[in-house]
Structures are given as C-alpha cells and as structure tokens.
C-alpha cells in the first residue's frame, strides 16, 4: 500500500499482496451473515455457502483455463505442491509403476524441493536440475534428464525471488513426450502473467494471498482428461474429490474466487502499470547507485520484480535498517540464528558476498508513482549512508 499516515512503503509483493478492498467486501457476508458450514447441504444456509464456493471454484478455474471440477481447494500453494508431488508419486507406486525419477529445479520454492527430496526415503530418485546465470532452465538439460523413465517434472512458473518466467509450454511438451506428468508451482504467476493449463500442464498450484486475496486458501489444478490420479496426504470426510478432506472456509474461498475474477479482468492492465512503476524506480535508483546489478533474465521476468545487488561493502540488512520506511526483503533464509545467502542466488552463480548485498523488491497493484520515487530515494540514500566514503557516488539524493 502507499505510504500514508506514516505507513511504510510496501514493496514486498512476492511475500504477500495486500487484500484488495473488493475482495474483503465479497468475503464479509460469509463471516457475518451466512456463516454456515458449506457441507451442511440439508438446510438453506449450508446450500447457499456451497453455491458460493462452487461459484468461486469456477472463477479460479477460469483464471487458468481449467474446468471448475478440476480445481481442488487447499490451504495454500505449499499444501497444493505437496499433494501434487507426493500424491502423484505414491499413487503411481501403488499401481506398480516402475518410474521412480522425479525432476525439479534448483531454484524452486522450498516446499517443492523438500517434497521431492522427502520421496527419496520412499524409493524415488530426486533429480535437481541447475539453471543458468539468468535463472532459466535449459530445455536441453530437461531433455537429457528425461532419458531415464520419469514419473513427474515440477518447474515453477515464476521464481519467487528473481522473478524469471520459465518457458512452460516447451518444458511441458518435453515432459509429455517422455511420458511424465508436468507440475508447475504458479503461486507467483497467477494474476501476473497469463496462464493456460491447455499447454500441457497436468498439475498446477495456486495461492490466494499472492493475487490480492486472503491468506490460508489455495488450489491445485488436477487434469481430468486424461485423468491424473493422486493419493491424498491425509484421511478425513472425503471432501474435494477425496484429495483434500476438511471443512472448506467459505469466506476465504469466496475471497480467492473474487481475487481470481479481478485478476482475469484486470491482470493485463495491472502488469503494464506495475512494469512502469518498476522501471521508474530502477531508473531513479541507478542515479544514486550507478553500479547496481539486476539479477535474473532482463526481459523474461514478471513485471513487478526487481532483484538487485548493491555495489560496495555494505549489506542488504544494513540498507534495510537505514531505510525503515520501505518494506523490502533480502531473499535470504534464516537458519537457526544465522542469516544465510539465498539458495536461489547461489544457484544462479552469485558469490556469497554479492548475495549478502542483494534485495528483492516487489511492486504491486497498489504501488503508486510517488511510492516508487520515494522508495528509490530512500534506498539510495540508505546505501550512500551505509557505504564507506570512497564507494559513495558524488550525487545528491534529491
């Protein structure tokens, strides 16, 4: 959101997006007026809640070119990724499939990498492919890995740190040619780039809070024809085609559906406007920090992303501390008490020292031109203030 009433400028839209006011308005009645369990279809309030969920399911499906009955509602993309990867592997093994190879990419979200690695204990063969310095997977590397009979390929649509967009159509075609299922974690892609499961995607994960919807709700697309079969992760009442038992949270589902509908209608305009804010910000920041480096492919990236490495001897943490009025992130993960450089940045070949000087900056629907200008000035001034004098440019912060 914009920096009003002393509120910081929010530029961390990869971590989460603010709830669109229209989404909140759509959700409110399902908390305050009709709070019924959507599975209590014996009475009118329950049936109304069920109908609202099915409307939302159709809205979510429309965003990715799917059928409503192909959408399995979950608590978020982490759960959806786990169901897709572990569910596909365990179902295939239970059917006697001899395919044991599961392929993914070194820059995937932790939940994908850990899901794939966890399956090694069940007799599967995890294969983690590298990316280039631009963050992209070489299709030839995937082709070579698929020479061994493969059960599943999982490749993220948009990277959550460096924002690069993978060539899903090409990668999905290679997987299909090799007889493997193709899954994509599209949490960072939905609402930001066009998505169409018709290009050969078998499984696709979504998260509500990445497209201006509520936290705690997500979805897994499961292709119906030819049918993809999965084993559920846990037992229960058999909701969501038996793949995800549990009472559905009607307000969250309605909010997710509304956010998806808005994204489908406004996503292209959003992307153009957001790209303009990002480019405006970068131009102004480079006046103050001339040797700033942008990580990831220059053009094949989502519109709102910048992942930048600062020159000199300061750290990203120091810059953030010196600019508390701007909400950005380092792209680093906390391990115990130590801050370790991001594994994504290491995967694209950034030295540890450079990774520690890198910020992830995410622009969104509610970023204004004034936000972009002020944030650039504040981060540039913070870098100047925290860098040794010989490294600071002779430029005014105005």
UniProtKB/TrEMBL annotation:
It comes from Humitalea rosea. Keywords: 2Fe-2S, Iron, Iron-sulfur, Metal-binding, Pyridoxal phosphate, Transferase. This is Cysteine desulfurase. Belongs to the class-V pyridoxal-phosphate-dependent aminotransferase family. NifS/IscS subfamily. It catalyses: (sulfur carrier)-H + L-cysteine = (sulfur carrier)-SH + L-alanine. GO terms for biological process: iron-sulfur cluster assembly. It is an enzyme of class 2 (transferase). Its EC number is 2.8.1.7. One of its GO terms (cellular component) is cytosol. GO terms for molecular function: 2 iron, 2 sulfur cluster binding; cysteine desulfurase activity; metal ion binding. PROSITE patterns: AA_TRANSFER_CLASS_5 (PS00595). Catalyzes the removal of elemental sulfur atoms from cysteine to produce alanine. Seems to participate in the biosynthesis of the nitrogenase metalloclusters by providing the inorganic sulfur required for the Fe-S core formation. The lineage of its organism: Bacteria, Pseudomonadati, Pseudomonadota, Alphaproteobacteria, Acetobacterales. Its cofactor is pyridoxal 5'-phosphate. The keyword Acetylation does not apply. Residues 9-374 form the Aminotransferase class V domain. SUPFAM superfamilies: PLP-dependent transferases. Pfam families: Aminotran_5.
